[in-house]
Amino acid sequence: MAHCVYTTEQEVELLRERQVGVVHCPNSNFSLRSGCLDVRGLLHCGVTKIALGTDVSGGYTSSILDAMRCALHTSKAVCFKNDGQHYDPLTLPEVLYMATMGGASVLGLDAKIGNFQVGKEFDALIIDTAAPCGNPVFDLFENDTNKDKVSKFFYLGDDRNIVSRFVAGKKIIV
Q1: 142-157 burial by CB neighbour count: b if 16+ within 10 A, else e?
Q2: Cα 145 to Cα 161: distance, rounded to the nearest angstrom
Q3: In 10 A of CB 164, how many CB atoms?
Q4: CB of 42 within 8 A of CB of 50?
Q5: CA-to-CA distance for 158 and 153, rounded, in angstroms?
Q6: Where in the numbering of this chain does the Amidohydrolase-related domain appear (predicted)?
Q7: DSSP character for 5?
Q8: Which of 42, 50, 81, 168 registers the highest number of CB atoms within 10 A of its CB?
Q9: What are phi and psi of 152, to 5 degrees?
Q10: Reduced to 3 states, what is the DSSP secondary structure of residue 21?
């Protein structure tokens, strides 16, 4: 199911019972002003197969990195809607999961793709922190952890940081 912005409690229960996957397309939802999906609410109700999508028919980019950023913003917007009640917005690790293993799970391919477990197909981006011509898109410091580096790429990086792309173990030439 795509979007699921206006699902009723009964519909959410059906999604959970039947283990239906949901594809969250936040860029499209904002572009069309169709609403904000409460991903945390779905997770709380037991809907566990949630992926990110780009839905360029309603949005303006096919970038999964943008979808991840928009998912975080959407989750924070849902916080505003909850009138100060306790609500934990999504985290970077959660949206990274939605963009990788979440997508694989929704497609029924989680035994084949979605992470770097031995035996799965190698789908990956090789990231370099320096943009073309040696101009950094973002700064890294000696004490930065791997988590810091991923976070900086997530918030500040773009396609200039992608050195190589691999799909099913094969390097894709762009």
Answers
A1: eeeeeeebbbbbeeeb
A2: 18
A3: 13
A4: yes
A5: 7
A6: 1-170
A7: T
A8: 50
A9: -65, -40
A10: coil
Closest CA to 39 of 1, 82, 74: 74
60 phi and psi, to 5 degrees? -120, 5
Q: State how far the Cα of 172 lies from the Cα of 166, in Å rounded to an integer.
A: 6
pLDDT in tens, the chain (174 residues): 999 999 999 999 999 999 999 999 999 999 999 999 999 999 999 999 999 999 888 888 999 999 999 999 999 999 887 766 788 999 999 999 999 999 999 999 999 999 999 999 999 999 887 666 555 678 889 999 989 988 999 998 888 888 899 999 999 998
Phi, psi of 167 (to 5 degrees): -130, 125
Give the separation between CA 30 and CA 47, rounded to whole angstroms: 22
Concatenated DSSP letters for 88-113? ----HHHHHHIIIIIHHHHTT-TTTS
Instruction: Provide the pairing of β-strand 170-172 with 162-167.
Output: antiparallel
Closest CA to 52 of 82, 34, 72, 32: 72
β 50-52/22-24 pair status = parallel
